[in-house]
Amino acid sequence: MIDFLESLPLAVLASLVAAGVATLGLVIVSINDAWAMRNRVHFAAFASGILVTTALLLLPSAFKAHPNAPFVALAGYLLLFGVNALFRQGKGLMVIAPLFAIGIHSFLDGFEYGILFDHDPFVGWVASIGLITHEFAEAVILYAVLRTGGANALVSWLGGFIGAAITTPLGAVVSLEVLDGMSQPDFGLFLAAAAGALLYVGATHLPTHVIDGIRARVLIAYLLGVLLAFGLSFGHDHIEEPHDASMGHEQDPHDH
Predict the structure, then answer these.
(1) Quick check: helix, strand or coil at residue 8?
(2) Are 113 and 128 in contact (CB under 8 A)?
(3) Is 87 exposed, middle or buried, given 0-12, 13-18 or 19+ CB atoms closer than 10 A?
(4) Which residues, 6 or more positions from 182, have their beta carbon under 8 angstroms from its beta carbon?
(5) Residue 144 in contact with residue 42, Cβ under 8 Å?
(6) Cα(121)–Cα(119) distance, rounded to whole angstroms?
(7) Per-residue pLDDT band at 113 (split at 50, 70, 90)
(8) Nearest of 54, 55, 18 to residue 166 by alpha carbon
(9) How far apart are alpha carbons 71 and 214 in whole angstroms?
(10) Which of 26, 191, 204, 243 could form a disulfide with 62 if both were Cys (CB 3.0 to 4.6 A apart)?
């Protein structure tokens, strides 16, 4: 087992740790499902603060990377807005919208592991601390939001596992295959789409679930989400220079 772990690329290993942390969060919240439901309004407010802040922090890097990133971010937002219009008479959106947005974000988190470790293993591990910590809260939040939207405990658990846990190592594995051919501008478009989707869920979808809460507690929960996302962003640049065939490692001075 140890030999197997040592043989894994660092990006995949870090993403598996993140998936394990997310799963731990799901186990904890599912043991006391009633507690999660009693506090669903506060989870929704907390999630809204995290997702809006995360989206706004991602956008400058995405805009810097590609001139079309603003349009892609708007497309990500409008895509979920359109899903809302299609499913507003039922419970489909309550599962699809947050699962879609957080799933994309977690996938890009996994993708970032590949970029960060390819850039510098030390930088990769430092940045992973914030990313891994975020996965715990992300899984718990997704579970609570799905429960609030009408999904049962099993569907919410599976949705949280798929959206917040599985997608992270999946993104890391995919990153190993495509990084050599992906430029920084291309990754900026992925980042913009994720930011637009997160902004929809955080600023439009989730606020509909907090209107019945105690205002002071809801505000505190929202601000805690903002502070957590902002705090975890320190020391972590969302776009590192990817390893690209045309702009990757420096040329060996002995290679003529």
Answers:
(1) coil
(2) yes
(3) middle
(4) 242, 244
(5) no
(6) 7
(7) confident
(8) 18
(9) 37
(10) 191
CB under 8 Å to 4, separation ≥6 — which residues? none
Please determine, for residue 8, whether its predicted confidence score (pLDDT) is greater than 70.
yes
Helix (H, G, I), strand (E, B) or coil at 91: coil
Query: Which amino acid makes up residue 196?
Result: G
19 and 165 Cβ atoms separated by less than 8 Å:
yes
- Classified as helix, coil or strand, 55 is helix
Angle, helix 40-65 to helix 184-200, in steps of 10 degrees:
150
Crossing angle of helices 10-31 and 121-148, in 10° steps, is 30
CA–CA distance, 24 with 18 (Å, rounded to integer): 10
Per-residue pLDDT, averaged over 39-57, amounts to 81
* Residue corresponding to tokens 């971010």: 73
The pLDDT mean for the chain works out to: 76
Distance separating alpha carbons of residues 52 and 195, to the nearest angstrom:
9
Q: By the 8 A CB rule, do 119 and 244 touch?
A: no
Residue type, 155: V
**Residue appearing with tokens 């609030």:** 148
Interhelix angle 69-87/92-119, rounded to 10 degrees, is 150
The distance from CA 256 to its chain's CA centroid, rounded to whole angstroms, is 43
Q: What percent of the chain has pLDDT over 70?
A: 71
Q: What's the farthest any 2 CA atoms get from each other in the chain?
A: 69
User: Tens digits of per-residue pLDDT, 132-171?
Assistant: 766 777 788 788 878 877 788 888 899 899 988 999 899 8
